[in-house]
Amino acid sequence: MTVEPCSADVPVVIVGAGPVGVTAALLLARRGVRTVLLERHDDIYPLPRAVATDDEVRRILQAAGIQEEFAAIARPARGLRLLDARHRVMAEFPRAALGAHGFPQTSMFDQPELERVLRDTLARTPDCELRGGVEVIGLEQGPSGPVRVRFRDDAGEHMMLADAVLGCDGANGLTREAIGAVWEDLRFEERWTVIDARTSLPVRSWEGVEQICDPRRPATFMRIGDDRYRWEFRLDDGPELNDERLRELVAPWVGLTHTSDFDVLRQARYTFRARIADRWRRGRVFLLGDAAHLTPPFIGQGLCSGLRDAYNLTWKLALVLQQAGDEKLLDTYESERKPHVRHVIRLAVAMGWAMTGGQDRAAAVRRGILGTVFRVPGLGAAAARDLSPALAAGPLVHRRVRGAGRRLIGRFCPQPWVTANGRRTRLDELLGASFTVVTAAPLSPASRAVADGLGARIVRTTGLGDDGRLTAWLRAARVDAVMLRPDRVVMDVVPRGGHGFTAPAAWAPLVHSARNPPSVRRTAPESLLRSSTR
Predict the structure, then answer these.
(1) Average pLDDT, integer, range 59-78
(2) End-to-end CA distance of the chain
(3) Could you report the per-residue pLDDT of 295-340, keeping only the tens digit for each?
(4) H or E stretch including 366?
(5) Which of 524, 318, 274 is nearest to 423 (CA)?
(6) 373 CB-near residues (< 8 Å, 6+ apart)
(7) Amino acid 45: pLDDT
(8) For a disulfide at 300, which of 52, 120, 280, 533, Cβ 3.0-4.6 Å?
(9) What contacts 297, CB < 8 A, 6 or more positions away?
(10) The dihedral of CA 295, 299, 303, 304: what is its sign?
(11) What is the pTM of this model?
(12) Spatial CA neighbour of 388 closest among 311, 444, 440
């Protein structure tokens, strides 16, 4: 069959229009980068899958422009409990109603509802085009020039040229093979049965996630919505559960009779795996989400990790495509995200080990020790915070700072509510999408020159109406100012009483082309931005 080239090229092609692909498209569109999404299916997958997110990822959804819509479908959760076989609490990981990112630390949701919100927003975004019913059949790139994307639809085969391709096509997609990546097996594989149900019956729930640490029948339970619940059980392979077996499994939470109002929305078997692709990039083709990594679901970070991928990569890609940023900037995507993903997967595997851990005498001792350790006051909360450690050292995360400010480098700036021009808003809406200097003191000429070279906004913490939270955050770290990347990660600091940033020579060569950034679509009006920046 003759391959017909499309008439127009596009800056970015995204393979796969699941939550990660669509979020990446929306983030790029808010930076003025046009995308075409190629998706096999004509509509969203209608059954539940991901059900939990954290406050950092809600901040990403805010950056993508869907925070208000997501808030309408999300339900805050109290955290995670580990229970023994008799459903006694062994450990608790509390999650606050308001985290450092300005949102509940854990929120439950229904993935089809999230995908509908994302698709509706995508349809209203001029710089995004979605093509459904399309199968990508080939990706080719030479040492230079655009990536050739070959795809097939009802009209035949076509070719599109793209400056970059984002592979958001899942664990079985084509993109990973196209860049020659292979899986690194992190040695976890188990078969689980997932049951999603709707019921008006009273269900025993503490409004958080429960993990049952019983080697004979490990399980997970959570409330997703007003009348929506999920159970996950590790069961032997066999036929689908009959009513009697289902009643037995859910009995610790809800009593069922033959006439009970209990609607099983989905019953499916999944193989939970722990894997990381050995490479996430070749040239201008990148892997994101399940195409790059797979994690067991025990700490609710599967989809979250994919959305973090999109947030980390898109601002860097926009700088390279629009403002001739250094190509090496794109190398920092994998070097920053891969260690973070590995850390999260290891936490999930450890949680799975705590739940299933074997049936020998040593396993019983290990579970007993686990229960004792996690009863130490504050340890559960500390473990929960470990879901988002500082980014690994690299060109944009200069960790050689000694003393003042070291603990801030590579971590997110908190997002308090602020007041500007008489209006209450979250900090990120005020900052826009550029580099930003947040400072509690007047900048030195050297620091101001660095900020001007990046086209960075300079925001004083005084008068923000945040009850002094940002000022206190800076003072606790003994710094006068921080340089924030567009993704709100602290890139550098000015130590208290210092004359300038500690390491601009390490990162400025990569991002200097960000000067005079293009206009970016924002929620906050320009008048609000002017009122609190100087």
Answers:
(1) 96
(2) 60
(3) 998 888 999 999 999 999 999 999 999 988 889 999 999 999 999 9
(4) helix 361-373
(5) 524
(6) 91, 379
(7) 84
(8) 52
(9) 220, 232, 272, 348
(10) negative
(11) 0.90
(12) 311
